[in-house]
Design goal:
By secondary structure, this protein is an alpha+beta fold. It folds into 3 domains: 2-92, Immunoglobulin-like; 120-196, Pdz3 Domain (Roll); 210-404, Trypsin-like serine proteases (Thrombin, subunit H). 15% of the residues lie in helices and 47% in strands. It has an 18-stranded mixed sheet that branches. A 4-stranded mixed sheet has the order 1-6-5-2. A hairpin with a 2-residue loop joins strand 26 and strand 27.
């Protein structure tokens, strides 16, 4: 009898532990908010293991900082018996976009000038750095020098050299707050020029891939990740810029030791005026419209499944082409806006040409079951066949916000990008 009781106790303990572990796993994987197209039922997975039950109608559901009146709460349970968590569900209109996969050039100019590093000054009185002593940091944006707006490196240099050793005021922007600092330029013993001890940058340029064009907002979206300064790691603050035409002129293959790249050149006119450099990508307002016959519906994140998919990208002859890939993992939780799925290139032709995912492929659309599910964003440095993708739903939210003039997303940890 004691042995039987002990056996039952151990069995119950193991079953309870397994159940708690399963519930904990699903709770960590499931996000706090979802969208569902109108007249459709909210469902995660195949609807069998995880059962979703509408619990109450909600007049105000908050999602990504906006409020929707078309929302409700849904209770998710394991086999309809064991509760896991409740989530917010907002109703959305189905949306079709022109899926692109074409290369484009990016020209961006910062708001003011961006501080990207320090350079100590050798003076008659030793090594000094007035900018550091005044509290200027990398990532700061210099908007004005001595009351004059600055737009490029020459603007700053000319004012500093004219001021010589006089106390000079700098209007700084940091974390969306403005303040002033004062410092006196120092004469460099090395080249007899007045300096303040910083490196600054006023523009960025590069090649990436356009993901889609959303005709209702008139916004084109690309990259699937923000453009960050190479020195500071921060999103580059955009004052103005353009998407321009580009073509791929060569391919450097990825190897075990290095990530490859698509080698491109600017070759066309302006496609769009940049409106936003966001963690989810870059977004531009198109004057006129982009002609594209490849129109697909945007998949919601709960529709993205582990399994076969295709990457649409342009490697040569100027035409986008689909290549096979696998969705290895899908992350429904809300911990990242860009690290949403793990993808693996399986197409022999793509592997032969590029060695896997390469820089310049960022923004390449990912298609599954006839819908746009996301875009390529990052490559794994230790395995160039694999990388991360972003949900198309996340990019669409930003594109529509840009189109209506509503935005600002929180900062997020940056990853090694594939652009």
């Amino acid at each position: 009898m004691k042995k039987l009781t002990k056996f039952i106790f151990v069995l119950c303990f193991l079953l309870s532990s397994a159940t708690l572990g399963t519930v904990g796993y699903f709770e960590a994987q499931i996000g706090d908010s979802y969208s569902v197209y109108k007249d459709n039922d909210f469902c995660i997975g195949d609807g069998k293991a995880l059962v979703c039950t509408k619990t109450d109608q909600t007049v105000a559901v908050t999602k990504n900082g906006s409020v929707s009146v078309n929302g409700y709460r849904s209770k998710i349970s394991l086999f309809g018996v064991i509760p896991i968590k409740s989530v917010n569900v907002t109703e959305a209109d189905e949306c079709e976009v022109a899926v692109l996969g074409t290369p484009f050039g990016i020209r961006m100019f910062t708001e003011g000038v961006l501080v990207v590093g320090y350079s100590d000054i050798e003076t008659q009185n030793g090594i000094k750095n007035p900018a550091v002593e005044a509290g200027i940091k990398t990532g700061d944006i210099i908007l004005k020098v001595n009351g004059k707006s600055v737009e490029n490196n020459n603007d700053v240099q000319n004012i500093i050299r004219a001021r010589k050793s006089q106390m000079t005021e700098f209007l700084i922007k940091r974390d969306n707050k403005q303040f002033t600092v004062k410092l006196a330029p120092l004469l460099s013993k090395t080249d007899n020029v007045y300096k303040i001890g910083i490196w600054i940058r006023d523009s960025s340029a590069g090649i990436g891939t356009l993901t889609f064009y959303e005709p209702r907002s008139g916004v084109a979206a690309g990259l699937g990740h923000g453009i960050c300064d190479a020195d500071t790691g921060e999103l580059v603050p955009v004052d103005h810029g353009q998407f321009v035409g580009a073509e791929i002129v060569g391919i450097k293959k990825s190897t075990e030791d290095s990530t490859g790249e698509l080698q491109g050149m600017f070759s066309g006119g302006v496609i769009a005026e940049i409106q936003k450099n966001d963690i989810t990508g870059v977004y531009g307002k198109v004057s006129g419209q982009i002609e594209c016959d490849n129109v697909l519906e945007i998949a919601l994140k709960q529709e993205v499944k582990v399994g076969k998919a295709q990457i649409l990208t342009t490697l040569d002859n100027g035409q986008p082409k689909v290549y096979d890939c696998l969705i290895k993992k899908v992350y429904h939780n809300d911990s990242s806006k860009i690290k949403n799925m793990v993808i693996e290139v399986t197409d022999p032709e793509l592997i032969k040409k590029t060695g896997g995912i390469v820089q310049g492929m960022s923004g390449s659309p990912i298609i599954q079951n006839g819908k746009l599910i996301g875009a390529v964003t990052h490559v794994f440095l230790n395995n160039c066949l694999q990388g991360y993708g972003i949900f198309a739903e996340n990019m669409l939210e930003t594109a529509q916000s840009v189109g209506t003039g509503v935005l600002d997303r929180p900062k997020e940890e940056q990853l090694k990008d594939a652009s």
